[in-house]
From TrEMBL:
Annotated stretches, region: Disordered: 144-166
Native species: Streptomyces lincolnensis
Keyword Signal belongs to the record: yes
Composition-biased stretches (Low complexity): 154-163
The protein, known as: Secreted protein
Amino acid sequence: MTRRAVVIGAGLAGMLAAAALSDAADEVIVLERDDLPDGPEHRKGLPQGRHAHLLLAGGLAAMEDLLPATSPRRLLLDAGAHEISLGSGMIGHTSEGWYRRWRHDGPTMLACSRALLDWVIRTAVLDHSKIQIRQAQVTGLTGTPGQVTGVRLSTSSPSGSGSDETELEAALVVDAGGRGSRITHWLEQLGISGITERTVDSGLVNATRVYRVPEGAERFPMTIVYADPYSGRPGRSGMILPVEGGRWMVSLAGTRGGEPPADPDGFLRYTLDLPDPIVGRLISGAEPLTDVHLSRSTHNTRRYLEKAPHWPEGLVVLGDALATFNPVYGQGMSVAALGARFLGDEVRDGGLASPGLARRVQRGAARSVEAAWAMAVGQDVWYPDTRGGRPTAADRVVTRYSRRLTKAATGSYRAAAALWDVSSLVSGPERLLHPTTLLAVANGSLLPPLSEPPLSSVERGILRGLDRTGAV
């Protein structure tokens, strides 16, 4: 029997899955329909690629485990990514006030363009001799309802006159084909139906423009003005993310009825109308390097594959093919990495053909999805005109607690640390119910609320020097 593994999709999830399988398989073939760039450039098949991405601490740890010989963290930092401490390296305005900056760093995250991250990881994975990428369009799965044995694919014919249909045998197939995956249709072709899906769509639109970092502002902290899900109005947010090449990536996001515009003047006005105008004040004196790019591929969609009554051996679904998240929460890449690490752990223990492997991996991957899904959907259901869900009684109870936690985190290090750990996917939601966290929430903020951003005197000088808006 073949010991070949086939991965559908050469995006981040697919390449990490290939890394997870490389030691257990004789060969790993990654099938990708799109042309892949030779360097850190945007590609057509990634609609969110031009917008801000954060690699959370939990996702980075999973990548380090999957690629221990190369250290993705070191590769990304060497390529220009920025390492940002949640405790001291960012400022954030929430619905409950400003977060403080603490002497303790807390978890860190990496900030860079998505194009750079994909290119660095793909290059690192392909250094493994067992892994190769082939350009092909997957059209279905082969096998039976109990056992997937490979994929059907379409490739261009040598004469250029059409395409050839072929089959590729595999001991294990991983669908990491992203938001456009047709896994439900392929399962139905095998005779597996009844897969439950849910979509929650706040109508969020992303708008991003890249600026040159002004001279002297190279160490200015990452800046976020969070949306307020509880105001009864459309959510509006903005952030300044330092990325490679001495640039600021400025991403705005607005839910249905509060969408950011694509014109440069409207883009700036939108930033100044956020709950705090700090993003607009900073960029009003910065040099723009690009036009404004919009994207609407932002809905949350989850396929509950782990709940299927029958699941075939030889098939695993990971990444956006399993669940997509509103990108404003920055979870998708890290959830994909955690799923790939779980796959790697399972194949290392039992091999590609271990009985029940596919079902175990599908259930394990679902645990990481569940934590991220609860955070994303638990906020999106509060925005007006969200489609696919409204707050339930349970949502209201959870929201009351999460708002008290966020309020406490503006002036309590223990509350802030718990929030960092869970939002970074370092710890599961149970961290929020630990006795020390419960006590911190009960005590509330131990310090008075901040009336302005927690900037140093040097940073306040930078803000004043850049501000062309006339704001006080």
